[in-house]
Amino acid sequence: MLRVILVSSEVTYVPDNYAAAFNTILRQCPGRVVALVALKVVNLALLATIAKLWFAGCHGVAGALANNIVSNPAKKRRLQFAEHGAAFIEATTMNDAGMIEWVRANRIDLIVNMRTRCIYREEILRTPRLGCVNIHHGLLPKYRGLLCDAYALFEGREAGFTVHSMNAKIDDGGILKQAVVEKIDPTVYTSHVQKSSEIEGGTIADLILQIEELGQLPPTIPNKSDGIIHTRTPSLETIRKMRKTGLKL
Q1: Is CATH 3.30.360.10 correct for 4-244?
Q2: Which of 44, 83, 163, 225 is the most core-located residue (most Cβ within 10 A)?
Q3: pLDDT confidence of 167, banded at 50, 70, 90?
Q4: Residue 187 has what pLDDT?
């Protein structure tokens, strides 16, 4: 049976903090998920960011982050994973020597990175038997960088996510799966994020079972494009432009 660990930030701006996605994976892949690793992100800098987002009018994102901080996410996630016989581990980075040794000692086959900004280095990328995969919240190969889905909603394009293998370059590995997320309410970013996370859960569950059946990662689609667009965390000016179009952040 495949041995998988999921990695996420201790808090995210997904309104339910990824609970639905985790539930789907745990239910559909019983016994495969060995642990959730929650990377610590709550600090004074994050609190300052939440305040800045709120005063910039990004009430949805700021509110989701704040609610997820005060809701005791560690306790909730520990209980959620314990119900399925999986461990809950808190760490600062996947590149920590202790985490690398834990992955090696527990004979982990696959790491799935879900909404973290951790940049995996060569050693951790090589440690799981089948490597690491990442959920990128944009449609590769063209759209790379941060908050690709928010820019897609702002520009009226298709918004979705891509699951890709990980290598030393950011957003660069071969494409494994991709999904366009139907716009339930294209003016509310957090509604899109919540819907996307729920679809991500099913997509990752399907991938885990497919990998187990094959005994390896399935064939990938080349992640190459002549017209790559990189997006960054929007400036205050860009946020104002987004809000003027009616997008509620």
Answers
A1: no
A2: 163
A3: very high
A4: 81
